[in-house]
Request: fold
Amino acid sequence: MSEQPTETNGLFRPELEVTPPERQRRWTVLLRLLLLIPHFIVLWLVSIAAGVVLIIGWFAALFLGRLPEWISGFLILFVGYQTRVAASNMLLVDWYPPFVVGQPGYPVQVDVRSGRLNRWAVFFRLILVIPAAIVSAVVAQGWCVLAFFIWLIVLVMGRNPRPIFDASAAVLRYSYRTNAYFYLLTGAYPRKLFGDSHAEENPPRQSPGTRPLVMSKGGRILLIAFIVLGAIGLVSNGVVQSLTKPGYEYQHEYDYGR
Reply:
């Protein structure tokens, strides 16, 4: 299968290439969160700068119909760094991610091609991104619910089984596309959560990877589990937060005292 550029109505949809290792070092899996702490700190600092640059870029895109090159370059750098750290955190790769700037040969590569933007879509971007952001939040929450079991499986086996890799890569790619859309790097709306095709419909590939993302049956089932668990988790969190709001207990005390 060839790696043809993905376009919708002439708009390039950001692509993500994740090449999984055959084996993962168990000690890096065991200590993954600790090893990534420096990246979390740097990513938080860079995200502050990205927020400021995004605001400037939003006004610029309204007038120019596209992002200035220096703004798109910085935001692509940020989204790529964010994606590489997330891929490592989700145990998709074993190679320690480079700080901020990507490097050739790293197993996580992003392909974003900033171009012309619809000014109306730029103006209403915060509203337009809501459906995709909800989907991204649901599947990410579902992955977090099973994160401990995923970590345990990879730790024991020393590798990421195909269904887990496929489902996790689908979550990461959709999140990456949502971020690219939010940061005005593309006008193509996030799509294809369940991959580009199914493994049963294609002959075995010569090399693994996510471009295109060919989902196994087990991966699709696990992704559905992410969606169900994520939806339940987010709804449960919302209910708990509403029940623990300041004043809720006082309201009940008032009701009981009447």
Residues 24 and 42 are 25 Å apart (CA to CA). Strands lie at 7-8, 11-12, 15-18, 108-111, 197-198, 214-215. Residues 12-257 form one domain.
